[in-house]
Amino acid sequence: MAAISAPVPGTRQLEKKPVKFSNLLLGAGLNIVTTLGQPLEVVKTTMAANRSDSFAGATRRIWSRGGLLGYYQGLIPWAWIEASTKGAVLLFVASEAEFYAKLFGAPDFVAGIAGGMSGGIAQAYATVGFCTCMKTVEITRHKMAASGVKPLSTYATFMDIYRREGIRGINKGVNAVAIRQTTNWGSRFGLSRLAETAIRRVTNKEEGQKLSASEKILASGLGGGLSAWNQPIEVIRVEMQSKKEDPNRPKNLTVAKTFRYIYETNGIKGLYRGVTPRVGLGMWQTVCMVALGDLAKDAVEKLTGEKVIAKH
């Protein structure tokens, strides 16, 4: 496949080289690094599932059910499977969509949103749906043990859900996941690019001029932290995938039904449970996938002498 090179009126020339397998491995590897934030993921999910818990209460609950290892529930294999697959999907789809958005004249902010949203929705339906379902099962099934019932193993739980509910059961809550991933990465990429533009103005850099590593990390951290605005979608997703028993909870949950249930039982605060660890997790993940992703692609470019995926 030949490289694509196209001038955008009034802007710099864009150049795109063919996608290589190494780029997909790069995305997978970077997203594996994001799983170092699994303790924040567990705290966030625990607070979303147990909406009366404070941050301190959630950490005590997690410690009581497994000590230090409790903070890594759902890491193996689900978080690793999710990270490796969704990282490759995100870096490939987001970069492609961002390149073509710029090809049609979109500014960095809009192109970043387009890339992030495209990558996020591709992630949700390709791999994230069933992985987040199983991670949530891992984190919430301790209620079975508390009631005196020995919980099934991870793989036995997976097969039990599949036998009873089929592929729909494994992908329960996938529409909420799609909304979350689309808004997540649309916000993270878009706000990160907006922050990069602001940093260029403050430091008197020209449009398109590369930022330093510290400036990239600062921009991504800001973009990731601010992207926690969609926490209600995350709380809805956790509730839809939770295996806790509640006779007051509606059957056959949809996103709308779950929203009403949470709002009626916990109010507006319930929809934002776990937002604090989510801010930290968002900052960490965005720094890894946006800042380190850009820096890593630049490093590959220098080593191979080629542009990778979509650079400008």
Automatic annotation (TrEMBL):
<protein>
    <recommendedName>
        <fullName>Mitochondrial thiamine pyrophosphate carrier 1</fullName>
    </recommendedName>
</protein>
<feature type="repeat" description="Solcar">
    <location>
        <begin position="215"/>
        <end position="299"/>
    </location>
</feature>
<dbReference type="InterPro" id="IPR053017">
    <property type="entry name" value="Mito_Cit/Oxoglu_Carrier"/>
</dbReference>
<dbReference type="GO" id="GO:0042645">
    <property type="term" value="C:mitochondrial nucleoid"/>
</dbReference>
<keyword id="KW-0496">Mitochondrion</keyword>
<dbReference type="GO" id="GO:0006843">
    <property type="term" value="P:mitochondrial citrate transmembrane transport"/>
</dbReference>
<dbReference type="InterPro" id="IPR023395">
    <property type="entry name" value="MCP_dom_sf"/>
</dbReference>
<keyword id="KW-0813">Transport</keyword>
<comment type="similarity">
    <text>Belongs to the mitochondrial carrier (TC 2.A.29) family.</text>
</comment>
<dbReference type="GO" id="GO:0180056">
    <property type="term" value="F:citrate:2-oxoglutarate antiporter activity"/>
</dbReference>
<dbReference type="InterPro" id="IPR018108">
    <property type="entry name" value="MCP_transmembrane"/>
</dbReference>
<dbReference type="GO" id="GO:0016020">
    <property type="term" value="C:membrane"/>
</dbReference>
<dbReference type="Pfam" id="PF00153">
    <property type="entry name" value="Mito_carr"/>
</dbReference>
<keyword id="KW-0999">Mitochondrion inner membrane</keyword>
<dbReference type="GO" id="GO:0003677">
    <property type="term" value="F:DNA binding"/>
</dbReference>
<feature type="repeat" description="Solcar">
    <location>
        <begin position="18"/>
        <end position="99"/>
    </location>
</feature>
<keyword id="KW-0812">Transmembrane</keyword>
<keyword id="KW-0472">Membrane</keyword>
<keyword id="KW-1133">Transmembrane helix</keyword>
